[in-house]
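Notes, Module 5: Reading structure tokens.

Key idea: the token line is not a picture. It is a compressed description, and you learn to read it the same way you learned to read a sequence, by spotting repeated patterns. We will look at two proteins. The first is printed below with its tokens.
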Amino acid sequence: MILLKSTGVLLLLSTNFSCAQQKKPNLILIVTDDQGYADLESFGSNDLETPNIDGIAAAGVRFTQWYANSPVCAPSRAALMTGLYPHNAGVPDLLAPRSPGLSLNRVTLADALKKKGYQTGVFGKWHLGAAADYLPNKRGFDEFFGHLEGTLDYFSHMYYLIRAPRPFHDLWRNTEEAWEEGNYMTHLITREAKQFIRNNKEEPFFMYVAYNAPHQPLHMPKKYLDRFSHLEPQRQRIAAMLAVVDEGVGEIIAQLKKDGLNDNTVVFFMSDNGGANNTKNFLSNEPDQFFYGANNGGLRGHKGSVFEGGIRVPACMSWPGVIPPGTVVDEPGIGMDIYPTFLKIAGAEPPDYMLDGHDLMPRINERKKTPHDVLCWEYAGQYAIRKGKWKLSLNTMLDFRREGPEVFLADLKADREETHNLAGEYPEVVKELRTQLDTWYESVKPNLPSE
């Protein structure tokens, strides 16, 4: 301890504590797009290179039963930003181009943390509303660099999907168009994230890094494709795109360490839904009817399905000095749990309405059971509910094109791949879960956006 006298005022300086150690923890949420459950080495892949994302799991906790709140992008992200079921957040489905999105009466994670003195930034895919009042800078974010819609060309940054009447450019810095033609989108997201860290190292920050990879179109620089030339072409593309993402995550962690922030930073990583098998992933007139490049770890279903393959995703979290390295949580968790967890860590006030998510830390450090009595999903007329080991799925789809059973009951403890339909053997379980599912859906219906 050093005492200095300056103009009659004693200044107390500590040699043991830096400003970075005294401030509130920095919070980083990293989300990938359409990454399958087993599209990480730490989740079972033996053909990818993901050492940096796996490093988050090794340094902290790996969640083996982590769920997205929806089998598609926008609703899943709405839950992350609000701590609510997508229906309660006003985004139960995909959004049309240039449309409204996240309900304006909901407090976003950025809104809540900003009130607590956090600098806030989002880099990458927004997909929560592109109308004027729904843009990131109107929803609590000080800085935004990325695209507003659900997908774009990785090099020209044009939006081409047939849902739009014509193509348009969709890369923005705050509310101004940004022109970076020829620069790979994943690299740009990483560049902006690193700059945000450098610019805000003296203040606590919340940074949402929303990589659009490996969502279609499956674009990547050739050098990454060449690295995986030994793989089948479809898998090769996914491996190459995720290698660029992993490299970016490594650069972000390295920037934190360089600026002396890593020990005071919480990092959460997850995918927004399961791996996709639709033909939009093809880059040519290939003979296959489905895309087989993603790896959902043998789980039934793909993106667009409420089966496990569409909603169970890889997830991990690190917080040096708080979460012991190598922790594994086998209790169910879900995207909307991140919001209350980050608020609790930051000491921020929750909104004046009840959240659907729950703080994760008791499950991580106290080995508590999940506080969710049930978890529920609804997408495009499909329904699912999980309670304990049981999961009931109704009006199912296997992906965007193929129908599944109308009623499917699985014992996830014995059969996480959902290979055996037990609905006929346990009608009483089906009845109980169906009643609870009906109750849940009736509770969220009042918050659905009007047609």
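Here is the second protein, with the sequence above and the tokens below, as before.
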Amino acid sequence: MVGPDIGKVLSRWHLPSTINHHEPPPLMKIINLVLVELMSSSCSTTIDVMTRHQHEQRKKKKLENTAQNNNYSNLGNIYGNAVKKAGHESFKKLGNEKYKEGRFDEAIALYTEAIGMDSSIACYYSNRSAALIGQGKLVDAILDCKIAIRIDPSYHRAHYRLGSLYLRFGEVEKALRHYKCSGEKAVRQDLAKVQAVKAQLVTCSEARKHKDWKKLLKESQFAYSLGADSSPQVYAMQVEALLNLHRHEEAYTGFQNAPVIDVNISAKLFGTMVTTNFLTVQAQVYLASGRFEEAVSVALRASELDPSEEVFSVARKTRALAKARANGNKIFKESQFSEACNIYSEGLEHEPYNSVLLCNRAACRYKLGQFERAVEDCTIALNLRPSYGKPRLRRAQCNAKLERWEAAIQDYDILNQDMREDKEVEREILEARMQLERQHIEDVKSVQFLDGPNKEEFGGFLIAV
């Protein structure tokens, strides 16, 4: 802040701007005048600052209003002029229209806008849950239904929708309870469907208890078809059956189709037992597909939820296989193939049907010249995971070393469909074909030799051999 000009102050109050030493002006009067001017200047400066600040605030507010108006204008262009009113009922109605058109993402955005304006209306949450179901976000749909019921405990449509969701998740008791609270929304067929799924889940549990994996696979698939198509319990049983039937590739594919649910939310919605069982199966699927670090992490999370011996045994096995893989790989890179082979074998003692450890042991045996045993390991790995490329390549190379050219070419042909840009594979295929052709030529010469002048001497014996 700049102070006032003293000369101007003096002249304004009719005092000389230069001091006459012979006739000095009253000192106190000058001091008082200067103080008054200072206060006036300070107030004026403060007012100026406040005025500028207010002006900037008004300008900023005006820009925000303009932007908001532009947004509503854009919404009006997309959704119609009714949205310009910015009423929550308008957003709900527009959301309903978008829902009917199958444009669920837009419907969800509109319902969310309505909720933002008034979060005390139950139907906004219920309607949004319907759109979330359309997008396959079933857990979010459950949460919205629960909020709607908390706002209005007698809201029949929300109860019915929540009952249907719980049925899909295999939570039959909860489904039945909400169906009973849905007034006339739930009909006899809905209640019969719940009872059918309930009975089927009991059948699945019995099959699992007796370790009848073929039956468990069949019955869990039937439970899925009855309506429990998003049940973590059903998915876990189906995948567990496939793992124990040594159909690991199908197990992994099946698990990829399972709903993705946060562990904490799953434990709250479906209970600790269902969630833990799902996690232990997930850990075993990750092991079977070579995702060792993730398997260890998931198994650890399961043991935190349920510190039972059954869960701990899965965690121990998971850690043992992950350790064997990591240590074996380290030793293999140091060209200590025999030692690496032993480490992989130790891991396979915990799980004899792990395709990754089998493939790695086959690599060691190939380096050690144990081609027959390497072929055996690769064949087991491929039975578990038919599209696993590494053991197929290794088996082709071993068969080439054993001069089984036809067997080698069969594997190479399958590989060539997925590895067209791999020059090394192309070279090995060409070499195998050349060797097979040479072998055919030699076989033809042998037959011609036997059909020639030596035919009487050898009879038909050598030809039969």
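Summary for the second protein:
- The chain is about 80% helix and 0% strand.
- Residues 6-25, 33-55, 64-78, 456-465 have pLDDT under 50 and may be disordered.
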